[in-house]
Write a structure and sequence with these properties.
mainly alpha, 2 domains, 12 helices
Length: 200
Amino acid sequence: MKSALDRFKESMAIDYAKWREGEGYDLEVLKEMAQVELQEVESLLIERLRRDGDWRDVEALVALDTETARAAVLAARKHQITRVRNYAVRLGPVTEADVVRAIESAKSMDGLDASLRMAENCNTAVVRRALLDMARSGDSTVRVHMVAMLYFLMGKAESAFDWQLRPYFLEFGVEDNQALRAVWNPLRAELEEFELRNKK
């Protein structure tokens, strides 16, 4: 019969089916482990996060809930992989710096949705400025969605992506730098006016 430790290690092998279903590691088996085995698991998870890691490693460290595991989860909030970082951020209080970091690293297929959700719940001048910056420097899809969120946070849109304003948002998806500057500069002026009004 396989040990609890062996069964946990087997659960760490993520095949396509597990990946597609978002299936995590076998956390229930942690309850069967002796302290020495739990320490081995903790070291294994922390080392995986140092190399590259996965959100599942963060989830398992949360389940271990030791001082060392909690420190590793906190460190993962600055992880180089967007999905890992955003998952770790969601597990605790989100700071303005966390939100800005998520916005600045957002890509159309990696971290965009998470960064927008975080921005929606952290409507500060610093976050609005980060959205503005990414409305110019992000990829085409990111630019469109950053403008949409910025408009919402400024009270100029009814929702986080106001479909009535979609034609305007799509103007930020152009690849021509001159055309992009032509729409971005007025947006910057709108934000500056908004910030000025709200300082009074």
